[in-house]
Amino acid sequence: MAKAKRIVKESLKLVDVVIEVLDARIPASSRNHDLKELAGHLPRLIVLNKSDLADPELTRRWLEEFKKAGFSAVAVDLIRGRGVREIPALVRQLVKAKMARLESAGRRPRAARCMILGIPNVGKSYLINKLISRNVAKTGYKPGVTRGQQWIRVADNLELLDTPGILWPKLEDPETALRLAVTGAIKEEVFNLYDVAGWLILLLAKNYPEAVIERYKLQALPEDAGELLELIGKSRGFIGTGGTVDLLKAAQNVMKEFREGKFGQITLEQPKN
Ligand SMILES: Nc1nc2c(ncn2[C@@H]2O[C@H](COP(=O)(O)OP(=O)(O)OP(=O)(O)O)[C@@H](O)[C@H]2O)c(=O)[nH]1
Ligand SMILES: [Mg+2]
Question: Which ligand 1 atom lies nearest to the CA of residue 82?
């Protein structure tokens, strides 16, 4: 972990802009507050990814909140490529003053250099690929090597470090850890699937009761996670040996269907304002 942080710190010395990728379903929990210390001096573009899975109204409010805090911010859906085209222009805007300063000091104009950062599974590799493939026809895949780093020209006047930086999520409180688990940022092996799915299904039953009833064809919504998972398992026909309901299968199903957006576009945390 310390090593990853050191690599990020070294790479940041080479860039003009930080692109911080967040999960639009958990814009607060998917942040890493070390970034303030590591890159507080650099202009930052916040990319709210997986916006196809998030509540559009809450995404709009989160974007406002980030802009109020002084960041540039955009929502994207990297599967469909939505929002990606705005990124080069937003980055150029962020470096405008710096480039003008360099030029007036007699330096040659150069491309803005960016680094993509984010927690595991948030879409960093997808973003790099989308940025490259959008422009590959126009500019060609032109890797360049500068001080041991690989740069990819992704648009006119825009270069990207070819490897993104991983930031470790902060498991500050149990709720944050649960949100990171249900959205896929924490590996399955390190949490108790049954507990996490139980938390999720109760949250969904409370806030989106119709979606849960409809999805699993339920007659009732018990307030106990175990009972609810049992009804879900029964409804889906997850019956184990001896005729008992396979609760683990029910838990897996709830997690899978949430991650696929089957309960609708759901954001798990609200902005303050
Ligand atoms: N629904 C949806 N899924 C997405 C989107 N972007 C990425 N994904 C999915 O998220 C998963 C992770 O994407 P990656 O680009 O591999 O994430 P990463 O940040 O590079 O992950 P690590 O390399 O593990 O740190 C993939 O399974 C993608 O299918 C999106 O906009 N919407
Ligand atoms: Mg990756």
Answer: 31
Name the CATH superfamily for 2-166: P-loop containing nucleotide triphosphate hydrolases (3.40.50.300)
Ligand nearest to the CA of 126: 1
Domain ranges (residues) in the chain: 2-166, 192-259
Q: What are phi and psi of 201, to 5 degrees?
A: -70, -35
Q: Which residue has the tokens 């805090």?
A: 69
pLDDT in tens, 238-264: 998 889 999 999 999 999 999 999 999
Q: What rounded mean pLDDT belongs to the chain? A: 91
How far is Cα of residue 223 from the mean position of the Cα atoms in its chain? 30
Closest ligand 1 atom to residue 261 Cα is 1
Please give the pLDDT value at position 145: 55
> What is the position in ligand 1's atom list of the atom closest to the CA of 128?
15
In this structure, the residues whose C-beta lies within 6 A of any atom of ligand 1 are: 49-50, 52-53, 77-79, 118, 120-126, 166
Comparison of pLDDT for 266 and 151, the residue scoring more: 266
pLDDT at 170: 84
